[in-house]
Amino acid sequence: CTGHCHGTYSTTRRLAVMRIVLRFLWFGVASAFAC
Questions:
Q1: What confidence score (pLDDT) does residue 26 get?
Q2: What's CA 2's distance to the chain center, in Å?
């Protein structure tokens, strides 16, 4: 189960990183519209 668990862990980390990036971009767009 090493390969399967590792793959799941990597996908979860990727989703977390994507969520952080999307939040950062959302804040950038919000600040741009505020200005």
A1: 94
A2: 24
Residue with tokens 């959302």: 26
CA distances from 21 to 4, 5, 15 (A): 26, 24, 10
Q: What's the whole-model pTM score?
A: 0.55
20 alpha-carbon distance from chain centroid = 4
C-alpha span between 6 and 26 (Å, rounded): 30
| DSSP structural state of residue 21 | H
Both tokens assigned to 32: 């741009």
* Number of helices (H), then strands (E), in the chain: 1, 0
